[in-house]
Amino acid sequence: MSADAPLAMPFSRPVNVENLGEALLHFKLEANEAQRRDVASLLELIALDRLVAQLSVQRWRKRGIKIEGQLSADVVQQCVVSLQPVPAHIEAPIVARFLPEAEVLAAEAEQSLEAYLNDPDDPPEPYDGKSVDIGGLVVEFLSLALDPYPRAPGAALSRQ
Q1: Angle CA 88–155–73, to nearest 5
Q2: Mean pLDDT across the chain
Q3: Nearest Cα to Cα of residue 142 among 63, 15, 42
Q4: 116 in helix, strand or coil?
Q5: DSSP letter string over 40-90?
Q6: Helix H or strand E encompassing 143
Q7: Whole-number Å distance between alpha carbons of 31 and 29
Q8: At 16, is the secondary structure helix, strand, or coil?
């Protein structure tokens, strides 16, 4: 395996969008036990007991893709103070836009820094123009929804 090989996403669900047209596609994704274990390892969770997402995929602009939906997960993180398990239920929206990589690069090149910084929307992500990994997107949004400093009830730093 070469050093340049991409990391395998443990919950990969590529969707071919080359011939999407005006159709609105709906997907329900649910991670099985092995996938949840792999995602938990990737995100440094103690456990991932449930990971489900409802997504819609549709054409956006001429060659772009828009994905919207919701993820639901039951996670167990480690308390940053006591190292005890901290269970949590997560409900998080998913909204992402994709454009072929050449279009993203061209848009970035012609946009001023001020316009880029003042844009209220996240810029579209580049993709190859053929497929989008909606499972990988779910894992990405789960990682963003996790508590960065989970604390068990009553956990406090001792003062000396």
Answers
A1: 5
A2: 86
A3: 42
A4: helix
A5: HHHTT-SEEEEEEEEEEEEEETTTEEEEEEEEEEEEEEE-TTT--EEEEEE
A6: helix 134-145
A7: 7
A8: strand
Cα gap 111→102, rounded to integer Å: 14
Per-residue confidence band for 7, with pLDDT thresholds at 50, 70 and 90: low
Long-range contacts of 113-118 (CB under 8 A, 24+ apart): none
Taking only the tens place, the pLDDT of each residue in 113-129 is 455 545 556 778 888 88
Three-class secondary structure of residue 113 per DSSP = helix
Pairing of strands 64-78, 47-60: antiparallel
Residue 154 has what pLDDT? 76
Joined tokens for residue 14: 């590529």
CA distance 141 to 90: 11
Closest CA to 93 of 134, 51, 29, 142: 142
Over residues 25-80, the pLDDT tens digits come to 999 999 999 999 999 999 999 999 999 999 999 998 888 899 999 999 999 999 98
Q: Which pTM value belongs to this model?
A: 0.83
CB 126 within 8 A of CB 133: no
pLDDT, tens digit (0-9, with 9 covering 90-100), for 57-68:
999 888 889 999
